[in-house]
Specification:
14 helices; UDP-GALP_mutase; UDP-galactopyranose mutase; 5-stranded parallel beta sheet; binds uridine-5'-diphosphate; Rossmann fold; flavoprotein; 370 residues; 24% strand; UDP-GalPyranose_mutase_C; alpha/beta
Length: 370
């Protein structure tokens, strides 16, 4: 078999690159994926009750990029959805990211008023400030506030999620959920926030539906590679796996996903409820709230973070810790040497904690430079 391009991985990165190569360059692409479905970790499907569930954790599309939004809109209609997350903290359901409403729930009245006043005198109305930055404030009230929020919202959640002391994490991790000096209870602030009508899987299938693209599922790329003649390779699997782990393994975090269907139409007060301090799971997702489906039953997802074991479970996140940087550098240097014939991209190929829109933006940019 002959193809111009072999794309390893049928996730958002692979699908975007394949689509761009097929339509803009008119070249043939073979997309292979070891799993028996497309869409990578954004894969969704209907469960036995007809409720659309995300098989690798909740995926809520959000972006400020008009380019990315317009691009994906060619392949799907959207169900407009503003994501809300509540944290179950000390018996209260508190909006996350922590905002002015949350502060009033987390602290007694006088204290919360003092904190809010201090914060609004120090920062701009509506500003989003990373918790680690607040903890370094020169103001002792702000420091005390931040220390309490850190302990109640971030410390145990991060320990569960990553299995390492939160101090080891890159500051950008907790900065994803900054303290928001507003009354807006939305989880994201992006201009575009939505879920594909029909799901991510259907959207990715539409992206791959092109005469120049062939898709092979349940196929190991090493095996295909030896049978297929191709000119260039796009690799969206783990970068260390590509190089046979020759410098050692880069760590990834995986999740045990446990689903439960209940014969009630509504289980919780928001699409996602986080449990920083209780239970072994980090959060509970109620899918009907994300998709807008109405049903007499509801399906929930409980996430139990675990270490990634190659061949045993799915890598969901690169580990965002400093210690990996030198090992990653060595793999990136190897990748650079073969960049004429092999392109690496995506969460696993770049070893970057990307959101979906960043994945698509990166793939579009890469495609435009080919
Ligand atoms: N985080 C936390 N408590 C929360 C929510 C988030 O400590 O209630 C921290 C935690 O380290 C988490 C990170 O912020 O891994 C990023 O959260 P996000 O919701 O963006 O995680 P994702 O949806 O990507 O798993």
């Amino acid at each position: 078999m002959k193809t111009e391009w072999l794309v390893v991985g049928a996730g958002l990165t692979g699908a975007t690159l394949a689509e761009q190569i097929a339509t803009r360059r008119g070249e043939s692409v073979l997309v292979v994926d070891q799993r028996n479905h497309v869409a990578g970790n954004a894969f969704d499907e209907e469960d036995e009750c007809g409720i659309t569930v995300h098989r690798y954790g909740p995926h809520i599309f959000h972006t400020n990029s008009r380019v990315v939004w317009d691009y994906l809109s060619k392949f799907t209609e959207w169900h407009s959805y503003r994501h809300h997350v509540l944290g179950s903290i000390d018996g209260e359901y508190v909006p996350l990211p922590v905002n002015l409403n949350s502060i009033e729930k987390l602290f007694p009245k006088q204290m919360s008023q003092r904190y809010i006043e201090k914060l609004l005198n120090t920062y701009c109305n509506g500003e989003r400030v990373p918790i680690l930055q607040l903890m370094e404030s020169s103001d002792s009230d702000i420091r005390a506030f931040a220390e309490s929020v850190y302990q109640r919202v971030f410390e145990q959640y991060s320990l569960k999620q990553w299995g390492v002391e939160p101090e080891q994490l890159l500051p950008s991790v907790t900065a994803r959920v900054p303290v928001s000096l507003s009354r807006d209870d939305g989880y994201f602030q992006d201009t575009y926030q939505a879920i594909p009508v029909g799901g991510y899987t259907a959207m990715v299938n539409n992206m791959l539906d092109h005469p120049n693209i062939e898709v092979m599922l349940g196929a190991e790329w090493e095996e295909i590679q030896s049978r297929v003649e191709y000119k260039r390779l796009v690799f969206t699997g783990s970068i260390d796996q590509y190089f046979g782990y020759k410098f050692g393994r880069l760590p990834y975090r995986s999740i045990d996903f446990k689903y439960q269907t209940l014969p009630i139409s509504r289980f919780q007060k928001a699409g996602v409820v986080n449990y920083p301090n209780d239970h072994d799971y980090t959060r509970v997702t109620e899918f009907t709230q994300l998709t807008g489906q109405s049903s007499t039953s509801t399906t929930l997802l409980y996430e139990y973070p675990v270490q990634h074991e190659p061949g045993m479970n799915t890598p969901c996140y690169p580990m965002p810790i400093r210690e990996n940087r030198s090992l990653l550098r060595r793999y990136k240097d190897e990748a650079e040497k073969i960049s004429e014939s092999v392109l690496f991209a995506g969460r696993l190929g770049d070893y970057m904690y990307y959101n979906m829109d960043q994945v698509v933006a990166r793939a579009l940019k890469l495609a435009s430079t080919l």
